[in-house]
């Protein structure tokens, strides 16, 4: 990967992905999908989830699962069942934060950057995070799967975030943990930092502007 830097003198806004970037939700989503598919006699492996489902919106997850496992259920109905199970989870608790996420949010906010969340996940999940961890006032906008016709890897979500922030791509930096999220940001013209998780470490991040091991590693090296 070439020596490039996402944060520059022109950077005014940082656009964070949510699942896998700010919140440690992938294991919970994996478990929910495992339990749901098991009720249809389908065994969801870690390998399949990592390669096919991680970082992808629920609607597409459902299509992929139905096709891969020759399920007879309508994908939309399966997706709604997954949403319902996620709502039940969030009614009891927020997803836990990724290591250093709270500190990173506060540090970047205190440094004067505008902050946004741009996610292929649900508005409910984002709102639960913001309220539970007391950081709602630090984010200028949030864009969720309900806000766009085409979710990641389409660029629509990042384009909408920039419009709401009144910022150009050269003034923004995206932070992602999956290839699909990275593609969305790059297609919107944003320099993109990737911080892979165990579920996305094998994704192709060769086009990323920078890659780090953790949010803390990024802060130490880039700011």
Strand order of the largest sheet: 3-2-1-4-5-6
The CATH class of the largest domain turns out to be: Alpha Beta
Distance between the termini: 20 Å
**Overall mean pLDDT score?**
95
Largest sheet: 6 strands, parallel
Helix content: 40-55%
What's the gyration radius in Å? 17 Å
Q: What is the second-level CATH architecture of the largest domain?
A: 3-Layer(aba) Sandwich
Structural class by SSE content: alpha/beta
- Summed up, the domain count is 2
> What's the CATH H-level superfamily name of the largest domain?
HAD superfamily/HAD-like
Low-confidence stretches: none
Q: What is the subunit arrangement here? A: single chain
H/E order of the elements?
EHHHHHEHEHEHEEH
Outline the structure in words.
It is built from 9 helices and 6 strands, in the order βαααααβαβαβαββα. The protein is an alpha/beta fold and 223 residues long. It has 2 domains: 140 residues, HAD superfamily/HAD-like (Rossmann fold), CATH 3.40.50.1000; 67 residues, DNA polymerase, domain 1 (Orthogonal Bundle), CATH 1.10.150. The longest helix is centred in the middle third of the chain and has 18 residues. The model has no long low-confidence stretch (mean pLDDT 95).
List keywords for this structure.
Rossmann fold; six-stranded parallel beta sheet; DNA polymerase, domain 1; 2 domains; single chain; 9 helices; globular; about 220 residues; alpha/beta
Write the layout of secondary structure elements.
Blueprint: E1 13-16, H1 26-38, H2 46-53, H3 58-68, H4 75-92, H5 101-110, E2 114-118, H6 123-132, E3 141-143, H7 156-165, E4 172-176, H8 179-187, E5 192-194, E6 210-211, H9 215-222
Parallel strand pairs: 1-2, 1-4, 2-3, 4-5, 5-6
């Amino acid at each position: 990967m070439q020596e490039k830097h996402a944060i520059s003198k022109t950077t005014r806004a940082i656009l964070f992905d949510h699942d896998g970037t700010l919140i440690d939700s992938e294991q919970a989503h994996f478990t929910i999908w495992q339990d749901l598919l098991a009720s249809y006699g389908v065994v969801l492996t870690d390998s399949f989830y990592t390669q096919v489902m991680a970082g992808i919106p629920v609607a597409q997850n459902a299509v992929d699962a139905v096709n891969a496992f020759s399920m007879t259920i309508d994908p939309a109905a399966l997706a709604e069942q997954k949403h319902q199970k996620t709502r039940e989870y969030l009614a009891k608790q927020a997803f836990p934060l990724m290591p250093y996420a709270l500190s990173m949010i506060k540090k970047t906010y205190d440094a004067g950057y505008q902050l946004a969340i741009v996610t292929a996940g649900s508005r409910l999940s984002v709102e639960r995070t913001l309220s539970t961890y007391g950081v709602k006032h630090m984010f200028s906008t949030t864009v969720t799967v309900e806000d766009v016709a085409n979710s990641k890897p389409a660029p629509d979500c990042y384009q909408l975030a920039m419009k709401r922030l009144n910022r150009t791509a050269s003034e923004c930096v995206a932070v992602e943990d999956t290839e699909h999220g990275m593609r969305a940001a790059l297609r919107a013209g944003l320099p993109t930092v990737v911080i892979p998780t165990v579920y996305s470490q094998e994704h192709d991040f060769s086009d990323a502007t920078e890659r780090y091991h953790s949010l803390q590693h990024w802060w130490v090296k880039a700011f």
